[in-house]
Design brief:
19% strand, two-stranded antiparallel sheet, nine-stranded mixed sheet, single chain, alpha/beta, binds zinc ion, TIM Barrel
Length: 308
């Protein structure tokens, strides 16, 4: 049996998430048969650049992102959940989703080095001060740029993000298609061609991971982030580490389409990974599956021998 995980979950610390506590998500995870949950609250410097500092929700109010006490609180709450849910068979991990921006490299470095994260997810949410992952804010960005410019800007930032060496895995690597498809149509599905390949090779070389982000489906897209085509390019480039995440900002999205994402990894012959203290580990399922496959093979060959 494979291990079901959700490696992209936003609890109530971020003002863009519903007021769902870490503990409530853990209870929800148990009900869904999820065996490992990794919280990835937002650390979003793009919003800071827009002049919004109070983007954290902590102690019942809006909190300044640079008043790091909230991050201590976040760790404490995860620690408590880890202890509480251990006996139920749920493991709970300490992650973060950092919105990459080149001007905030120092802050990012400080946070990832000073806090004991299990998993550091990096994603691009802002380009040129526009929040490209938001339905409303992306309008002005996409309307005033050519597809070519979007491609060059996005992939140049992505390349920098990967080369910074600060992240364990790349979140929703083709996120520009989330809303970009409304402006450029299906042409946007080709945007990666000729741009993403060297970045994927760099990801492989650095032993970084790529997440399968399932939130695209509930937004009406046909495929996960990234698409199967990009996954095959990643495989060709030698990327082996994949995680699966719902990107839940509310309880009802927890675990969404995770089974389907795991099916897809199976189709590609890929494995689902977990992280511990920023080290990628195979889920038990992979070795268990190999064991099971061998067992099946033995049974089948026995039957075949009898039939012959
Ligand atoms: Zn994101
Ligand atoms: Zn997210």
């Amino acid at each position: 049996m494979r291990v079901k995980t959700d490696y992209h979950v936003h609890p109530d610390y971020s003002v863009d998430a519903e007021a769902v506590k870490i503990r409530e998500y853990c209870q929800g995870a148990l009900e869904l048969g999820i065996e490992e949950i990794c919280f990835t609250t937002h650390l979003e410097f793009g919003a800071v650049e827009q002049g919004k500092d109070k983007i954290i929700y902590y102690k019942g109010k809006r909190w300044n992102i640079f008043d790091w006490e909230w991050l201590d609180g976040y760790f404490d709450e995860i620690d408590r959940a880890e202890k509480e849910f251990k006996s139920s068979g749920l493991s709970v991990k300490r992650g973060i989703e950092i919105g990459y921006l080149p001007n905030y490299l120092e802050e990012i470095e400080k946070v990832v080095n000073e806090y004991p994260f299990d998993f550091v997810l990096g994603g691009i949410h802002f380009i040129d001060g526009y929040f490209i992952a938001s339905k409303i804010d992306c309008v002005d960005y996409f309307k005033t740029r050519s597809l070519e410019t979007v491609g060059n800007d996005y992939f140049s930032m992505l390349g920098d993000m990967v080369e910074s060496g600060l992240f364990d895995s790349v979140a929703h690597i083709d996120i520009y298609s989330r809303y970009g498809i409304r402006y450029f149509g299906k042409r946007i599905n080709n945007l990666h061609k000729g741009r993403i390949e060297p970045i994927l090779r760099e990801i492989a070389q650095r032993n970084m991971g790529i997440e399968i982000n399932t939130s695209s489906i509930s937004r009406g897209l046909a495929e996960f982030h990234p698409t199967k085509e990009i996954i095959s390019l990643a495989v060709q480039a030698g990327v082996k580490i994949f995680t699966v995440g719902s990107d839940a900002h509310e309880l009802s999205n927890l675990g969404d389409y995770i089974d389907e994402a795991l099916d897809m990894l199976d189709e590609f012959g890929l494995h689902n990974y977990i992280y511990e203290k920023r080290k990628a580990l195979l889920t038990v399922s992979a070795s268990y599956r190999i064991h099971k496959e061998r067992e099946m093979w033995r049974i089948e060959s026995k039957i075949n021998r009898k039939e012959n």
